[in-house]
Amino acid sequence: MLKNIPKRLSPELVKTLMEMGHGDEILLADANYPANTNHDHVIRADGLTVLDLLQDILVLMPLDSYADYQAIVQEVVPGDKHVPNGEPPVWHQYRTEIAKSFSDYQFKSLERFEFYEHSKQCFAIVQTGDQALYGNLILKKGVIS
């Protein structure tokens, strides 16, 4: 047993976070994301949301202060009637959570298929059970100072 490891983080995910280096990225994917199609290293977190994992990962992992961005979201498909104002509500939750530990963060957004291609370069994908639309979030790992 270890102290101060958030209970929702599996041993496999903690190991993966430890193996990642500065600048490596990890995708926290929603339930609709084609994780196994886009990556060989998929970690299951079926009972959790992306926000659950984000909260717990930020306890352990710093974000990259040297990069132009610390997180990437998948752009809303133009004209998507499920997102009438152009921004999914979950993005506000992500911003709020990231700002608690990294106040000067920058989000980047990528078109759907660019996002899929980019995810292939991630260190791993964590597939959640999250049903929030456009809930995918890539985090860029920073350094411990």
UniProtKB/TrEMBL annotation:
Origin species = Lacticaseibacillus rhamnosus
User: What is this protein's record name?
Assistant: Fucose isomerase
Q: Which residues cross the membrane?
A: none
Q: Which Pfam families match?
A: RbsD_FucU
Write down the PANTHER family for this protein, in alphabetical order: FUCOSE MUTAROTASE
Gene3D superfamilies in alphabetical order: RbsD-like domain
Q: What reaction is this protein's catalytic activity?
A: alpha-L-fucose = beta-L-fucose; beta-D-ribopyranose = beta-D-ribofuranose
What keywords tag this UniProt record?
Isomerase
Q: Name one GO molecular function term.
A: D-ribose pyranase activity
